[in-house]
Amino acid sequence: MRTEKAMFGAGCFWGVEEIFRNLKGVLSTAVGYAGGTKENPTYEDVCTDKTGHAEVVEVEFDPSQIGYDELLDIFWSNHNPTALNRQGPDVGTQYRSVIFYHSPEQKSVAETSREKINMSGRFPRPVVTQIEPAPAFWRAEEYHQRYLQKRGQSHCAI
Q1: Which residues have C-beta within 8 Å of that of residue 111, sequence separation ≥ 6?
Q2: How far is it, in rounded angstroms, from Cα 156 to Cα 95?
Q3: Domain contains 158
Q4: pLDDT tens-digit readout, 13-25
Q5: Is 12 a catalytic residue?
Q6: Domain count, the chain
Q7: d(CA 59, CA 7)
């Protein structure tokens, strides 16, 4: 079986992971940090908003069961891609909307998808989601993995 990886930042990674974890065709998820300057950052490091990392979810999926375009649809539907460096009450670059692509194909699909969302009129403001090559993924501390599932919750209560 051929698998692929996708990486998304869409605010606090707890809720984002829970959404992707439950999709048919998603084999595994992990929350972590990507896109910053510090090697092997901790949650405390990232919360200072000085490392440049985003809270992200790395998704391993079976493309014969779920397409990258479908993952992007879920991504766009579960956060506000017009909010710069924030989602809801969470503020800082670590909560930015970002797609980290793993191949030229993913880059192309992500850019087309963003353009469609921008032109759709679905959001009153322009989409600010960044699309960048996948950098090193630093797995978050174990207590952050499947955080909501461990607490019997399906989403973050805001």
Answers
A1: 131
A2: 14
A3: no
A4: 999 999 999 999 9
A5: yes
A6: 1
A7: 6
